[in-house]
Design a protein that fits this description.
two-stranded antiparallel sheet; 1 helix; 3-stranded antiparallel beta sheet; 30% strand; alpha+beta
C-alpha cells in the first residue's frame, strides 16, 4: 500500500453553522457570529435534538448555571 497525500478542503458557506474541533471547542462561522453580535449575545444555552442529531443555541439575557459564555475573536 502506498501513501497518498490528503488534500485539505475548506467549505465556505453563508448559512449559519458551527463546527466542533478535536478539543471540543465549538466554532461559529461568520454568519452565526454576525447574528450573535447584532443581538448582543453574551451567553447561550446549548441545546440538542437527539431525533435529528442537531445542535442549537438559545441566547439568554443573564448568566445561568447551564449557560456558556460567548467570546469573539478580534
Amino acid at each position: 500500500m502506498s501513501w497518498e497525500i490528503f488534500t485539505r478542503t475548506r467549505t465556505t458557506t453563508t448559512t449559519p453553522s458551527i463546527s466542533i474541533n478535536n478539543k471540543c471547542r465549538i466554532g461559529l462561522n461568520r454568519a452565526t457570529t454576525a447574528i450573535f453580535k447584532a443581538n448582543a449575545v453574551e451567553f447561550v444555552l446549548l441545546m440538542w435534538d437527539s431525533d435529528q442529531s442537531r445542535m442549537g443555541f438559545r441566547p439568554v439575557v443573564k448568566k445561568d448555571s447551564r449557560s456558556y459564555g460567548v467570546s469573539y475573536a478580534k
